[in-house]
Structure to design on (96 residues):
């Protein structure tokens, strides 16, 4: 699967506005439906529609730092769950 950066996606969407999505997709070597998905995301999410590669998008009201912190919080919560499970396992072992 191809991954495209934010600048490429934004430029592709702009080009599709100018010359039409079919011509732009053909000219850029991108699948028509992929370009249409990018256009749809821009409509739904505005300037935050295309960050980095792949399918990720950022809501317009969140900064990159906020997104990064939310990911970190999720990782820490998962780590805490693992530690709680391990604590329970070792606590049971000590009681024997």
């Amino acid at each position: 699967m191809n991954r495209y950066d934010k600048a490429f996606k934004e430029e592709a969407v702009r080009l599709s506005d100018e010359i039409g999505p079919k011509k732009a997709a053909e000219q850029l070597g991108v699948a028509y439906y992929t370009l249409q998905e990018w256009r749809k995301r821009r409509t739904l999410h505005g300037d935050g529609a295309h960050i980095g590669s792949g399918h990720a998008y950022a809501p317009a009201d969140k900064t990159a730092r906020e997104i990064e912190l939310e990911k970190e919080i999720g990782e820490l919560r998962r780590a805490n769950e693992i530690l709680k499970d391990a604590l329970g396992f070792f606590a049971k072992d000590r009681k024997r």
User: Anything to note?
Assistant: The chain has a mean pLDDT of 82. Residues 62-95 form one domain.
